[in-house]
Amino acid sequence: MKKALFKILSNEPIAKDVYKLVLEGDTGGITAPGQFVNIELEGFFLRRPISVCDWDDKGMTLIYKTVGKGTKCLSEKKSGTLDLLTGLGNGFDLSKCGKRPLLVGGGVGTPPLYGLCKRLVERGAASAVVLGFNTADDVFYEEEFRALGVKTLVATVDGSYGIGGLVTDAIKTLPVGFDSYCACGPEPMLRALCDTLKIKGQLSFEERMACGFGVCMGCSCKTKYGSKRICKDGPVLSSNEVIW
Amino acid sequence: MKKALFKILSNEPIAKDVYKLVLEGDTGGITAPGQFVNIELEGFFLRRPISVCDWDDKGMTLIYKTVGKGTKCLSEKKSGTLDLLTGLGNGFDLSKCGKRPLLVGGGVGTPPLYGLCKRLVERGAASAVVLGFNTADDVFYEEEFRALGVKTLVATVDGSYGIGGLVTDAIKTLPVGFDSYCACGPEPMLRALCDTLKIKGQLSFEERMACGFGVCMGCSCKTKYGSKRICKDGPVLSSNEVIW
Amino acid sequence: MADMSVVLSGIKLENPVIPASGCFGYGAEFKDFYDLNILGSFSFKGTTKEPRFGNPTPRVAECTGGILNSIGLQNPGIEAVINEELPRIAAFFKKPVIANIGGFSVDEFVYCAERLDGVEQVGIIEVNISCPNLHKGGVNFGSDPKAAAEVTAAVRKATGKPIYIKLSPNVTSITEIAKACEDAGADGLSLINTLLGMRIDIKSRKPLLANKMGGLSGRAIFPVALRMVYEVRKAVKIPIIGMGGVASAEDVIEMMMAGASAVQIGAENLRNPFACKEIIEDLPRVMAELGIERLRDIIGVA
Amino acid sequence: MADMSVVLSGIKLENPVIPASGCFGYGAEFKDFYDLNILGSFSFKGTTKEPRFGNPTPRVAECTGGILNSIGLQNPGIEAVINEELPRIAAFFKKPVIANIGGFSVDEFVYCAERLDGVEQVGIIEVNISCPNLHKGGVNFGSDPKAAAEVTAAVRKATGKPIYIKLSPNVTSITEIAKACEDAGADGLSLINTLLGMRIDIKSRKPLLANKMGGLSGRAIFPVALRMVYEVRKAVKIPIIGMGGVASAEDVIEMMMAGASAVQIGAENLRNPFACKEIIEDLPRVMAELGIERLRDIIGVA
Ligand SMILES: Cc1cc2nc3c(=O)[nH]c(=O)nc-3n(C[C@H](O)[C@H](O)[C@H](O)COP(=O)(O)OP(=O)(O)OC[C@H]3O[C@@H](n4cnc5c(N)ncnc54)[C@H](O)[C@@H]3O)c2cc1C
Ligand SMILES: Cc1cc2nc3c(=O)[nH]c(=O)nc-3n(C[C@H](O)[C@H](O)[C@H](O)COP(=O)(O)OP(=O)(O)OC[C@H]3O[C@@H](n4cnc5c(N)ncnc54)[C@H](O)[C@@H]3O)c2cc1C
Ligand SMILES: Cc1cc2nc3c(=O)[nH]c(=O)nc-3n(C[C@H](O)[C@H](O)[C@H](O)COP(=O)(O)O)c2cc1C
Ligand SMILES: Cc1cc2nc3c(=O)[nH]c(=O)nc-3n(C[C@H](O)[C@H](O)[C@H](O)COP(=O)(O)O)c2cc1C
Ligand code: FES
Ligand code: FES
Question: B8 lies in which domain range?
Fold first, then answer.
């Protein structure tokens, strides 16, 4: 965990109510894709947790949806600095992804998979990516994933773009043979994946958080191996420990 | 009273911890010199009352000292807008100033006298101005008053500038013959003036305020003619009604 | 068209938004800001038998998300209110007002209620038994179920108008006091009054308020107020006017979902004199967003 | 050199700044952020006889200037704390810790106190009789002077260590409960715990917290906490650890002027993990500005 000021380089919409925020600053706290940052916003008591979409040693990209007052306020910041806690959570474990990992993102659960995918590609893993959205207006980052050279399928619930249906429907159109999967998105999606895919998975969860660094016990969940803090022992849990 | 957004044109120090803030916006609510505005500052529950130093139909000038968190925060705003309630309080009554009014300002009580002096000069009243400060570093607006063509004396308590001593000492050096006085500054100064000057005076007071427009009764004071609200029935009281 | 109307003891309000006592004077200042007839009603400054100057100043102090006050019920006395303020109000406000009364003894409450009983303009008498700035060391009617019931029963006899007892949050069990008031004949309850608080000026090493302690109100107290409205709603059948930190149309809705039949707005008026107007204008939008057709349907749904 | 030291029941603290229970875990996460030995002490997460998962999630909700929590005392149980957490703490914290204990019965408090009695690392036992997230409908030891005295007397017998009773603000008279604890043998008092509050999600029309209500803490409650410390200070002779919304060096000083001998910082650590460090570093500057040479001289000056 590091606490640092980041400079806002840009903060523009890339889909309906979805913004891409590019920040410059010390990313030394970040150690794995799937980790998150916690953003201080003036006038709000708690910080807002947002997954790291991608990062390098100069800065990072975040993608977030405006769902309430905090994210709305964030979307209005076009310059200046933000106070962040970085490198929060465990993130995805690359070493457990195998050679042919399947990445599944739902809605604004998609961003952390991009940073993961990039690093998997660097390591030579032949990933495939399935992204699920509600409707065509919500779709983002399809091209960015393709640009990494991975097979990328998009499903929309209303069929207005890509494959009609859920990510699980899209997955059925892929050849079998994946040795693991990594997923981030709404809980029903995670559960459906867990139920249908018989391979090992890493699932990224959300929970209401206060601290985001493991001290308040706000975000606890029960797993097969005892209670875990989503913010510190997660957000990524392994498919075989989750109690649904 | 009007509520309006004002644009910050400039906000720069003009003496030790004293800032001059120039605002552009609808000044239609202001009807008399000595009135004040109440400034909303993000993160602070209450607005901050500041006297109008001068105004025209395009904007106004405020002068304030940084004494706490609110004024500190204000001093950091170099651009953008401010939400103001304007035209608060009664202000000085020009019609009661006579032909030779004496204006006395102490510290950051000085600003409202400038707007008053300007209007008195326009009406042909031959004013004289006495300004009191603690020390040379605190002095401001001496030249601005002179530029209005009025005799202007400055006193400093430590004698580091102008006449050494209090405003009452400086007043002694002036010829007699004033028919009224208007004053704004610390309460001991107002009281000393009231005790020594035997002519009628208009005195501008400060009190802790919540609303600033007369509804909360936060700022009440007892006068010889019943209780008054400093924010609405004041800030200017007449010397013969004040109970010290 | 969004239906914002609510009913308090047979009195239909166009909408549930009511400026709270002490933050709206007797309306005269606000009538210059906007047409007050858009309000559901308004609750005027707490009025006592005799005129009162109140406590020494400073009697307001800023806090994070709120304000402390120790006004101490400054008011011109019930006669002046009946003879001067109410006729003045009649000129700009055509709806029934809520008459907030304070007092130091049961007799004083009774006296004020009796005097207001015949005043047609008064829709509801709001009996403030919870002012934290009075009764130093003496009886605080709002902290004891028996005393609260005693005032309620006495005022009940003094007037045929609906009486709403305004409760203090500074108690171990607000439901106990609420029930005592209901049993003693209250038509409704107003809650909450301010939370007793204090600030110290670290430079002078003295309390910021001349009266040392004062009542905390404003956004900071919203969660406490909401909890109390929710608890009391489950404990009594009479309607509740909810208040404490309400500052937006969303807050009004949250307070109603907790169990309030109408909502008062206090300190927010002091920061923003247009608060009530803005909230009333914003309510239809928020209702539409949330799929609420009739505001009264959400009372106590949570 | 500014002298920031204070003394609690014979234990000298380098400075009065103590992270509050529940907002600092058992220190392990914070030791990675800064050297915890700069702290006066720290109060670890409320510990019960048996391990507890606590209440269902969501169990935190944001409010203006504060946070509601309904954690419900998640902890690994007293044995794990003694056998695992305390040895771990010993590796990074060389000062006596404050052991915060919770419980559902007098026996549970006694059990925990007895087990901690022999643990050298423990300087003070802080007895939390005021958790708003337990005892639904049952006894709340913190809201009744008799029950508070009973716990105090029983824990008093169980240990030779100084015991500080942590009081609830959700009461009509905190001084009455404070006095009962003093009479029953408390060495000191910690106040305040959280204010009972609630929020509703207006979209789902359900309480935001799965447990419906929770405890409000953070800056919003500072004026209430300060008032209670001030009141209790005038009513008892034993030292007070003040807390509730403290977020800056100025707040620490204000709390001490109200009567606190030391100050705990809770929710602010959650927004800013460096809060305690920054406050400790800022204290000498603020002391100099205010002309305070020895911090302990200002205890209760207001
Ligand atoms: C580990 C983690 C990673 C996340 N990554 C992303 C991301 O990359 N992109 C993105 O768009 N969103 C992400 N979220 C969700 C994001 O944190 C919420 O959408 C955001 O906090 C909402 O804030 P608000 O003020 O707009 O909403 P409000 O509803 O007004 O917020 C009120 C409170 O609830 C909390 N809250 C609301 N929704 C959520 C939620 N879904 N999860 C956790 N807390 C919530 C807020 O943080 C705040 O404390 C992530 C959440 C977590 C826990
Ligand atoms: C009618 C009126 C006109 C004023 N005109 C000017 C002016 O032209 N220039 C100027 O420099 N100052 C003026 N003041 C004083 C100015 O309002 C305060 O200095 C300012 O509010 C301090 O805010 P703060 O947050 O920096 O201080 P803090 O002490 O942190 O403020 C805490 C609270 O106390 C209030 N407060 C603090 N000092 C005063 C004070 N002296 N009077 C009233 N409230 C106070 C604040 O408004 C705030 O609510 C005027 C005050 C009044 C009442
Ligand atoms: C300055 C001020 C004066 C008040 N005076 C009264 C009063 O006279 N009678 C009363 O019943 N309540 C009075 N109150 C309490 C409010 O009516 C209300 O119950 C309380 O402030 C909580 O609501 P809020 O948070 O919206 O302000 C006063 C509050 C304030 C801030
Ligand atoms: C998330 C959270 C967990 C808490 N857990 C405990 C606890 O286990 N035991 C306890 O005595 N107090 C607990 N408290 C209360 C704090 O110690 C403190 O009394 C209260 O939060 C007020 O201080 P603050 O405003 O600085 O947070 C908890 C508070 C929070 C916010
Ligand atoms: S949010 Fe505090 S422990 Fe996870
Ligand atoms: S500040 Fe509210 S009446 Fe003057």
Answer: 2-88
